[in-house]
Fold this protein.
Amino acid sequence: MYIFFSNLAVLFISPFNWIVALLLVAVLTKNQKWKKRSLVSAVVILFLFSNMFLLNTYARWWDVSPAPLEKGKVYSAAIILGGFTSEDNKGKGFFNERSDRLIEGMHLMATGRVSHIMMSGGNRDAPAAQFTEGAWVYKTLKEFNFPDSALLVEHRSINTTENAEYTRQVLQQGHLKGPYLLVTSAFHMRRALYIFRKKGVDVLPYPCDYVAGNTNTATLDNFIPNLYALSTWNFYIKELLGMVVAHVQR
């Protein structure tokens, strides 16, 4: 049920879909006033949400800055949130565009900033499926010669709330104390940080995978309609709505 409503919500949070819906109204309606209003609204939404400058401005406000790490301190775990692998038609995993999450976690481990990697992620599309992100990443990390004793995994979660709950259980069972470094995409960090702390997990933000807002440069190109900006707003609108839901949940 969660997956159904989550996928359904995507249809309503996309500015592109808003534009398409307004254009359909403009084409199908016979009311000239509504036709004009729909066309104007579609154009306004297009120019606002395809503006890279506005997207970067919002992202710089929304994204959480990385916490300063204590010099010489080795943190007990880097918690890496799933969402950076996908399953092919043969049931095997592959990395997608969010894989910077794993790269940053591996870097923290390789440079001695953390003693353990905690991987959290199941199979969002099919929770009962044989393929799970956590198990596949665990296998991949072992192939990179990361020691089994330094790897922790949970492969049941299908959303951020479950990430936090199941991760807390694994870390407690492993007798690892916080603060832990929470590794996820910059656009997702604010909500993830709130949910993990709400669940009683002592985490510090270690954002990565910046999709916007990581530059202060304002060039002419930033004001030209940009399809990347239009699609990237989907991430931030989803996170904003997700944050509202997280605040009202127990």
Notes: The chain has a mean pLDDT of 92. The chain has two domains: 2-63+225-248, 78-208. Residues 31 and 110 are 64 Å apart (CA to CA). Residues 2-63+225-248 form one domain.
